[in-house]
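User: Okay, second chain of the day. Same drill as before: sequence in, structure tokens out.
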Amino acid sequence: MTGRSPVQIREAGLLFFSWRHGLKYHGGNTLCEMATVRSTAVSVPLRHAEEARRLLRNQDAIRHDLAISKDETHIFFPVKPTLISFPLGRITEHIFSPRQEKIKSYQDAVSVPSQLHSLLPSSFDVVGSIALIKIPPELTSYAARIGEAMLAANPHLTTICQIEPVSGELRIRGCRVIAGEQTTVTTYREYGVLLRVDVGSVYFSPRLSSERRRVADLVKDGERVADLFAGAAPFSILIAKYAHPKIVYAIDKNPAAVEYALQNVRINQVADRVEVILGDARDAHRLIREKGDRIIMNLPFAAHEFFSSALSVAADRCVLHYYDILREDEVEARWQQLVATADAAGFSVEKEPVRRIKSYSAREFYIGIDITATRRAAVA
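Assistant: Same drill. Structure tokens below.
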């Protein structure tokens, strides 16, 4: 479509949507570059622009389907042909661009069967310039349309990815590009920290941003911190940036996550405080040199399976930030399971009130529990 001359459209009343490479109008799928419309106009010297605008509005004379234009000396208002004279300017003809309708939501722009419209997701995650959206099975065949509509409604985005639920200890989710640039790598900024992430091979959730900062603010000077499922190391790096730990061990079993964690440590200049380790959290007692005063367990659905491993590297008194995805009626049973695991490992545990961090599904919640574990004194 590049290289074509501008297209003039004389018919009025078309509703235009702004797209990345042109304009789309209802009634067809034509993408027109630099579409224009010739219309009756009022030409007014710039010094009278605001007064003229008020008068024309009072007379209901302005055409709202066309965008007001101006040059170095005059402003041109598109007006209805019923306007015969105007005291502040002259009646003429002028070529205008159609006013581009602002798209408030991608749902306003996407074309899907009416019976499926209610299934369109109302929210999605944004990591840097990439949007991550879960699309119901009924809408899978319309994924490309959904992606293009999201780009149209969100000019700051460059890539739209359809995602599947996270699975496995590596926390990898199905991720495919449905619109925009064919990449899953982006840079995300959080509280002044820059994080390089490949959303296709490394788990990352922007919805935990406030939680990461909250935990960083709790870290005391000189603490030893173990981040057992570090991913690209957002928890570890925020702690290193905003607290004064002695050391943060950022452990992950996923080689891709470790690669990005190492990049992020260098980017944010915290290599003196963050040690990135490729390894299984079950082997944490062999991977880190010192016991942890604070341990982060961000592995929803499976963190409870690693609770004894976490306690194996816990100091005599330790705070564990434990995360899980549960229904409300499952929380107490999970807590009793953790109490039993701690007791077997020689620890007593107390918890702060359970916090709902975000919704995961209609009935499940991403929860956080701050747990204080205290090693029991050995019986003589």
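The first strand starts at residue 16 and ends at 19.

User: Thanks, on to the next one.
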